[in-house]
Each structure stands twice: as structure tokens, then as C-alpha cells.
């Protein structure tokens, strides 16, 4: 099972919005509404930001939103803040397994 | 406080074995599916495998890269998850995270229904495994 495809890096200025894409296939992203997104700061454990495509866990800022179209899911962060600088990973359920994207490094300029 | 604490990491030679443990606290461990996820140095996250709960026969699933070499087990009486790693390779060098999958129980009328969600909402801090001669 190949990893989901994410851009290696994205950047934006404080206050701007950015979108990170996550492309899979009809066997994973396109086949289930079980896409989740994780934020990871250097040296820290991942943190769940979005689950089931577009749901936010309690405590996660509403600046984070998720969506999906066909085999591609997206994470949008609006009103960028310095603390949003981190690595972001998408994940999808697929026929009893779970796969992650390669990760995207977000730089806040 | 909901918490997962991994232990058991260390340095092991190629071909060797190691057993990782994950101690859970602050939630009903027996309700949840539990996962292991690893991260090689400077690399992304890689799902290792999952252990379902007693209600789902303690079934397990594994990534192709570890199937046949790694075994996940759990002891609900000890609120613990384990990862037995055999025939270790240098490419198994990574930080290994224990993670909890989402679960909800809804009550209706005279009954209830369990829902299992394929996201990881609680993570441990990880334990480092280094495979090297």
C-alpha cells in the first residue's frame, strides 16, 4: 500500500490561509470518509486536528477545517499563526489498514 | 488525565528481538482499539498495526512491512498494549508511538451501540528503537 501524496512543503504569512492536499485512490481516501489530519511539532507526538474528513476534536481551533473531493482530501488553515508552523500528516482507513501521507512542512513566514 | 506511556525501547542488533509496552490510564482501555505507529529519523509517520478489543475478538492487523515479524497484543486487566518485534532490521529504527483509536457508545431505549472510529485521538510520547550492529 503506497503512502498518500502530500506536498513536501507549504508556506504562508501570518493571517493568511493555506491548504494542504492529500491524494490517494478510490481504495482509501475516495472510498471512505475516514480521513484524519495530524499536526506534529518537532520532537513531539502527533496531535489529532481533523477526523472523519471534516470534524474537529474538542479543543482544536476552528481555524482548522477539512474537506474531500473524490480521491483528494484537503486541510485548510485560516488566519495563520506562528504556532501553526509544524508538520502535517493526513491519514486514511483502507481495507483494515491505515495509511499516512508523507507529511507536509508548514512554514509561517 | 488520559495518558499513554511507552517503554521498552533501546539498542538491538539486526536479527534481534525487542518487546515494547504501552501503559494506558485515564480511560476505559478495554473499549478502544489500539495502534502502534512509528517514525524513522527525519521521516514521516508509518502505521505499524492495530489490536481490536475483546468485543471484536482481539483481532489484529499489520502493515505489510512488519507482517510476520511483529505481533501486537494487549492485556486489558493491566491496561497495557504490547509490540513484540522479531527479526529486526536496520530499517525498523524509529520512534514507536502507541495511539488510541476513537470510540463512542450511544444509549437508546433499553440498549446501547458501540462505534469504532479510525482516527487516533490520544498518543503517547514514544519510545526509541535503534537497530544497529
Tally of helical runs of chain B: 0
Tally of individual helices of chain A: 0
Shape of chain A: globular
Helical proportion of chain A? under 10%
Compressed to H and E, one letter per element, the order of chain A equals EEEEEEEEE
Large-scale geometry of chain B: elongated
The structure class of chain B reads: mainly beta
Q: Mean pLDDT of chain B, as a whole number?
A: 96
Reading the helices and strands of chain B in chain order gives EEEEEEEEEEE
Structure commentary:
- The complex is a heterodimer of chains A (109) and B (133).
- Chain A is 0% helix and 46% strand.
- Chain A has 109 residues and is an all-beta fold.
- The relative contact order of chain A is 0.34.
- The model of chain A has no long low-confidence stretch (mean pLDDT 96).
- Chain B is mainly β and 133 residues long.
- Chain B is built from no helices and 11 strands.
- In chain B, strand 5 (45-51) and strand 6 form a beta hairpin.
- Chain B is elongated.
- Classes of the chains: A mainly beta (109), B mainly beta (133).
- At the A-B interface, strand 3, strand 7 and strand 8 of A face strand 5 and strand 10 of B.
Amino acid at each position: 500500500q503506497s503512502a498518500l501524496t502530500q506536498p513536501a512543503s507549504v508556506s504562508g504569512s501570518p493571517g493568511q490561509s493555506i491548504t494542504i492536499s492529500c491524494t490517494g485512490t478510490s481504495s482509501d481516501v475516495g472510498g471512505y470518509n475516514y480521513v484524519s489530519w495530524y499536526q506534529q511539532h518537532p520532537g513531539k507526538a502527533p496531535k489529532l486536528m481533523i477526523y472523519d474528513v471534516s470534524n474537529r476534536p474538542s479543543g482544536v481551533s476552528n481555524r482548522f477545517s477539512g474537506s474531500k473531493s473524490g480521491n483528494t482530501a484537503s486541510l485548510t488553515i485560516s488566519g495563520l499563526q506562528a504556532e501553526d508552523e509544524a508538520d502535517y500528516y493526513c491519514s486514511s482507513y483502507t481495507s483494515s489498514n491505515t495509511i499516512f501521507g508523507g507529511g507536509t512542512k508548514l512554514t509561517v513566514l | 488525565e488520559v495518558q499513554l506511556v511507552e517503554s521498552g525501547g533501546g539498542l538491538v542488533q539486526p536479527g534481534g528481538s525487542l518487546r515494547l509496552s504501552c501503559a494506558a490510564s485515564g480511560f476505559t482501555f478495554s473499549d478502544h482499539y489500539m495502534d502502534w505507529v512509528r517514525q524513522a529519523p527525519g521521516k514521516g509517520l508509518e502505521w505499524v498495526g492495530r489490536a481490536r478489543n475483546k468485543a471484536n475478538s482481539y483481532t489484529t492487523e499489520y502493515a505489510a512491512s512488519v507482517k510476520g515479524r511483529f505481533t501486537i497484543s494487549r492485556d486489558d486487566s493491566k491496561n497495557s498494549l504490547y509490540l513484540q518485534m522479531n527479526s529486526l532490521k536496520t530499517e525498523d529504527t524509529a520512534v514507536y508511538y502507541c495511539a488510541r483509536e476513537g470510540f463512542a457508545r450511544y444509549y437508546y431505549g433499553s440498549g446501547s451501540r458501540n462505534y469504532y472510529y479510525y482516527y487516533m485521538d490520544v498518543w503517547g510520547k514514544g519510545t526509541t528503537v535503534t537497530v544497529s550492529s
